[in-house]
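FORM 7B: Structural annotation worksheet

SECTION A. Query
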Amino acid sequence: MSENNLAIVILAAGQGTRMRSRTPKVLHEIGGRSLLAHVVVNAEKLAAEHVEVVVRHERDRIVAHLADLFPSVTVVDQDEIPGTGRAVEVAVDALPAGFDGDVLVLSGDVPLLEADTMRELVEAHRATHAAATLLTAILDDPTGYGRVIRDVDGSVSRIVEQKDASPEEAAVTETNAGVYVFSAAALRRTLPSIGTDNAQNEKYLTSVIGMLREANERISAEVAGDPRVTFGVNDRAQLSDVARILNARIVRRWQRDGVTIMDPATTWIDDEVSLAQDVTILPNTYLLGATSIAEGATIGPDTTLVDCEVGEDAVVKRTDATLAVIGDRATVGPWSYLRPGATLAEDGKIGTFVEIKNSQIGAGSKVPHLSYVGDTTIGTGVNLGAGAITANYDDITKHRTVIGDEVHTGSHNVFVAPVTIGAGAKTGAGAVIRKDVPAGALALSVAPQRNVEGWVEKNRQGTRAAAAAEDARNAQKAADGRQGQEEDR
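SECTION B. Predicted structure
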């Protein structure tokens, strides 16, 4: 196969009204990428000489998406003439005049088609010297798809769209996948002659097949081994269908590469996620974006990681984390929330009901429970007591807290930033730390305790609390009386 004599045209101009969405259909996402991006990623694997995307509806949004992810792709604008035939016509017109190779036509809403299938289709087209070769699928329910009508000798006669099909044609189960290979010369001969005499008043690309057939040119068809690769997306139900198929494909790939996935049905893994051998994924886990998990780590259950990095043998359970780094042998969770910029070094711990934001936690350090740590640098061997809060925001500006190595703090401490706690220092329970603490010092903020006797009975008369206090006071008086009698005897 000579890739440099191949052009790929991706159709992404449709409005997608059945999606009922403000988002263009081809920009809806599955597996961490837009539908269109899945198609482009696989198309680029063929190393074609030209890759074009035809746009029209929501043109600027789609072009911005392509420019961000695929700057080498050529964008071609479809004019006011509707239909796939017109879309391919403007794409062919945009190719260099001397291009005489083959044109692979793909749909931007068919995201499951892999590069190998595309390559095999092009190879089959070239092997048969056909003017056109189409990919077809045998479907139990062909509703919504164009039907492939064959002659008695098995050759392709024509393609009939659902809206134009007779009852007999609608009963055919071989469907057009919307994926074709044409010789560029055949397209240049036929596309200008396509009319709009059909139910939609559009220029159908499928009309090319009939025209080539009438000219006695060879039309080939390859039936997809797995019909699911041809599934397109027209509405939200189909979007979820293809998302599940793609996810099952990704999960199975990682299982075969040595990853234990306990419950594939409740595990979702984006296409760009990287997993090492001997990673264990427990149920209800979502690994999204560019998340990377190192060897031996255990993730889940009930965990979502977005663009995170997890080290070897780490354990992350019942955690929500985004743009966080978790070191080797570290433990996180349950019920932890790691926001962007959270970094936990090796052998560290982030525990129950802890939120970390834009903070670095050193090796062997622990934030065990019920704490908020924001804009903070924590050294090695630190233990923050339960209920620790780094008060990083003064209503105008955010400030940093710095906690040195081997600091152990009391429960329910508030560190009012900016503040620095020196290495080896201690803080007492309930301390509010507003000033820097020298290395090795004990920081206390203790006020004398004052008890106001009888306050509840006086100020909360008639409440159950007042009654309980009165009962307790009377019981204590009775006990004191009995003790006095014993002493008198």
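SECTION C. Observations
Residues 58 and 206 are 25 Å apart (CA to CA). The chain has a mean pLDDT of 94.

SECTION D. Sign-off
Analyst initials: ____
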